[in-house]
Amino acid sequence: MKLISMSIVVVALLLAAMVMVPFVTAAAADSHAVSVEEAKSVAETNVQRIAASSSEFSDWKSADIRQATTYYDLTGNQSAYSFELTVGGTYAGYLIISATRENFPVLEYSRGETPDRNATVKARADRLAAQEASEKKVSISAGRPLYLGATFFYMDYSNDKADAKKTGDERIVVDLNEGKILRPESSNATLARFGTNELEIQRSELSKKAQALAAWDTIEKSTSNSSARTAGANSVAVMTLGQTTKIIDDVPFYFWNDGCSPTSAAMVLGYWRNRGLTRLPITNQTSGDPLTSELRRDMLTLYGATIPAMIPIGMNLVTQNYSYQYSADFQTIIISTWHVLINEIDADSPAVLSMLSGGAPLEIPSRPYGEHSVAAVGYDSDGTLGNTYVIVHDTWDPLVNRHILICNWIAAVSSAERPNSTYTITASAGNHGSINPAGSVQVPIETRKTFTITPDAGCTITSVMVDGQSVGTVSSYTFEDVTASHTISATFGQNAMIWNWSQSGWGTWQYRAYTPSGLSTPYGPVMTSNSIEGLHGEYGIDIQSNPGFGQTWINRTFTDPTGVGWNTITFNGVLTPATYADETGFGIRVNNDCVFDAWASQTPPGNSGQPFSFTANFAQSPTVEVTINFISDYAPIERDALHYDSLSLSRQPGSLMTAGNASFTISDRNGTTQSGLITTEKSGTITITDSTGRTRSVTPLNLKNRSMTGAVHQSHE
């Protein structure tokens, strides 16, 4: 779990080298101090922002806020304030706000409690301090709480501020989370193993201070009176997960095995195996073996501890053992270089992140990482240092992503495995669809890459070409073991034409009517608000004085712009309620072939104004003329009509229905078929079956062959 020679260097850096740990500043000038009132205003603003942006903290919207603890740094200056939240009188969490403008406004928040507020933790620290004081024969104070960065909580038992200037064995400081006395040692030797030194840490701190001051300036500028230094409503840069998130897929989770560094490195190499480096061994889903064991051997890990510089060396040896052209190197991650890790993740390259005095993850604020390695697999950020969290796979509690504030450590190193070469796959898609990913896609050598082809709604894939050769109409294609550049392209065709009368009206539909001897006349087409189904197109027969026979037609020709054509028609509509059996009916012709005709009946109740849907297939054609007939034999009411909801033409595989053996199903408005409301046309008859199983036969409408005489009314738009 530990890295070799990782001594506790927090106090050494702060006192001996005068270096601040992350999110701790040197003694702030009075001009940079933040009052409790100002800090509370920042807390109130951000409690509302956190509640609005995260369902986990949504109850904070109604939280009461009170200041709980004032924290100090190791030089005796105020470093932060904690504010406790209660909802309905019940404790709900805390926020920590900086007490100096040389640090970012919001330092951390959690549903847990700060360790200094835990009576058991405080009592343990008191005992440790008393034992240490007895051995050193010195007196101690009741303890001053220290906050040295996100999740770094300590208790300083120096008697007064003068004692706070003491160093080494003259000082008694207890780590509240780990429950032990801090014993500072020389820090430069430790930092050297992480590719940095105290001077570089100091320079990084100056960079961090400048960014923190800018964040506070933003707060002040957002208020009407900047000199008041109160928090503006939209000013504070608080981390709310989900701002800009990048997570690398396919990185496995492994439990700690043979050390945190080889286990984390096994997750990284396991990711590359999932990407196509299949000569790497198949791993145990829990331990990562045999990769973990091989990495432990090549990193020279001993009793779970690994020298950071050996991590990339071990990773390189393992990939070379399996003849892969990949390599890892050593990158120091401190405040001045934090973008290096972000760039690795943006390049889809997970990394082993080895921390020196690492803070705790956001989800478990009471458990700092200390000297520990994890697999960095993503980030959540608004683009600023103070609001960027690294998403990690931790060997301590795998299967769950954890978030740690970037640079919430004294120093860290990143070891990412990278391909020595990449190839370009150029992906393109025509109209009516997409390919993902698209454009020039860089693919690491010997990995696989899958492309997904998706047609737009109502369209279909017509061809997929790989390196100029057809691979059919596949919806996805995977390049395996990529060792050269490639091209992939997809074309699409419109699969369906949908006409919705409530949206498109009548457009270029033509309509005509037949009525004998002028006893009735056509009416429509009109748009009508129908209480059953909503807005329809309607066309029918208007009875003036005497009932009589009447028939209407509507027709329109559709052309598939792709030239492929359609073979299936679906119609949705509502027939006028029938009063007598075999009174009203309708038929559909496609390219002058009857694909359906049937009567509505009252015995059983027939089409009592309920919507119905009908689907039939026909010979595929790129040009389709649709004719829909409506007939009323008796017209006992003032108007008989057919309500037109929608019609679609599509391409479907196989045969859905054969003309002359069609079913006419009447269903309710929710699409549920009503028992006893089915009529089926077979061999020149329609068989009607009611809910009791009783059947009867009637003559079909057969509109295509019926002889018509009398007045014909025709119109078009």
From TrEMBL:
Coiled-coil residue windows: none
Record InterPro entries: Papain-like_cys_pep_sf, Peptidase_C39-like
Domain of life: Archaea
Domain annotation Peptidase C39-like: ranges: 250-396
Name the UniProt record assigns to this protein: Peptidase C39-like domain-containing protein
UniProt organism field: Methanosphaerula palustris (strain ATCC BAA-1556 / DSM 19958 / E1-9c)
Lineage: Archaea, Methanobacteriati, Methanobacteriota, Stenosarchaea group, Methanomicrobia
